[in-house]
Design goal:
single chain; 105 residues; Recoverin, domain 1; two-stranded antiparallel ribbon; 4 helices; 2 strands; globular
């Protein structure tokens, strides 16, 4: 993944141009619902390595790479499950028996 792509993503989120992302900037880029705000708080607790309350480019780069890997792993898992399901699903053919063949009319 090119550093340029990560830098561009960072710059789009860094609305004030400070070179650091606040929780508010991060939340605005992610959405404003309560679930998103809880997720942003969790991200800052886990990935704000220097506990500054702001996300610098190196911390953002780590999150970006982790989310990229997550998407790849999720896609891989999804494809694996799809292939497994496809190869292990048995198609049952129903044969109808003509029960009237033994009856005399």
């Amino acid at each position: 993944m090119a550093m340029k792509v990560i830098q561009e993503a960072f710059n789009r989120v860094d609305k004030d141009g400070s070179g650091k992302l606040s929780r508010e900037e991060f939340a605005m880029a992610s959405g404003k619902d309560k679930k998103t705000l809880v997720a942003v708080d969790q991200i800052f607790r886990e990935y704000d390595a220097d506990a500054s309350g702001q996300m610098d480019l190196s911390e953002f780069r780590y999150i970006y790479r982790m989310s990229y890997l997550y998407r790849i792993c999720s896609l891989s898992l999804s494809l694996s499950l799809s292939l497994y399901t496809h190869t292990h699903t048995h198609t049952h053919t129903h044969i109808q028996h003509d029960d009237t063949s033994g009856l005399k009319g």
